[in-house]
Design goal:
- The chain is of the alpha/beta class.
- Helix content is 47%, strand content 12%.
- The chain has a seven-stranded parallel β-sheet.
- Helix 1 packs parallel to helix 7.
Length: 246
């Protein structure tokens, strides 16, 4: 289960932070590290600060875009301050987030995404997430470095995993969720249907952000998403072949 939990670091500037994050991961039993456009990697500083977690560093994958890092994941949680402009489901506390993540990690990959040291994740990157989570730090000085944030959330995930292991009889496997790639295809299909129908008239309308948030909260299963795709296809065919008036 822990092998299905991925840590994604986006455009990390200091290679030493990658090493420290790898160390934080290994202390909690996590090993899947993906780096999105790091400034410098591989790097001797990353290996040095990883200490005994060089295996995590050696097996880390580097990709060019966040979509490549999370495309096969069924739940993607972005670590950031709450963004009111993007109405994604938000966890104000890491504990319930970790419990939900563990449930979905039983049979599919999930991800925790961390942004740049200085300004975190962009709005476009958050759009590749299904949820957001914040760490409730001191409001007068809530500054956490990257490795600290990884350590805190990795600890919560491990604690949730231990609780799950201690009471497996009470845990039920949730329905299989679609991957982010599958959701992206659905969102593109929905966009085309909204444009074709005339419902969506502005190319950057926030309507689509609200619809993404709606489906993120609903968490449709793969079967339900297939039904929704079928509904869209049927409506598109009906719109392109209107009945002749008698």
């Amino acid at each position: 289960m822990l092998s299905n939990i991925r840590i994604v670091l986006v455009q990390t500037f200091h290679p030493g932070n990658i090493g420290q994050a790898a160390r934080a991961m290994k202390t909690m039993g996590l090993s899947d590290l993906v780096l999105v456009n790091p400034r410098s990697f591989p790097d001797a500083e990353a290996t040095r600060l990883a200490a005994g977690a060089t295996d995590v560093i050696d097996n880390a994958r580097v990709v060019e875009h966040i979509a490549q890092a999370v495309g096969d994941c069924v739940q993607v949680v972005g670590a950031s301050a709450r963004l009111r402009s993007l109405p994604l489901p938000h966890f104000d506390d890491p504990e319930p987030m970790a419990s939900e993540l563990i449930e979905h990690a039983q049979d599919a990959p999930v991800a925790l995404v961390f942004g740049r040291e200085r300004f975190g994740l962009t709005n476009d990157e958050i759009r590749h997430c299904t949820h957001q989570v914040s760490i409730p730090a001191n409001p007068e000085y809530g500054v956490l470095n990257l490795a600290q944030a990884v350590q805190i959330l990795a600890y919560e995930v491990r604690r949730a995993w231990r609780h799950h292991q201690a009471s497996p009889a009470t845990s039920q496997t949730p329905p299989s969720l679609p991957t982010r790639d599958q959701m992206a295809h659905f969102e593109a299909h929905l966009h085309e249907a909204l444009v074709t129908s005339g419902f969506l008239t502005q190319p950057h309308a926030r309507t689509e952000d609200h619809l993404r948030a709606l489906f993120a909260r609903a968490q449709p299963s793969r079967k339900e998403l297939s039904i929704l795709r079928g509904v869209l296809s049927t409506l598109e065919k009906a719109g392109s072949n209107p009945r002749s008036s008698s």
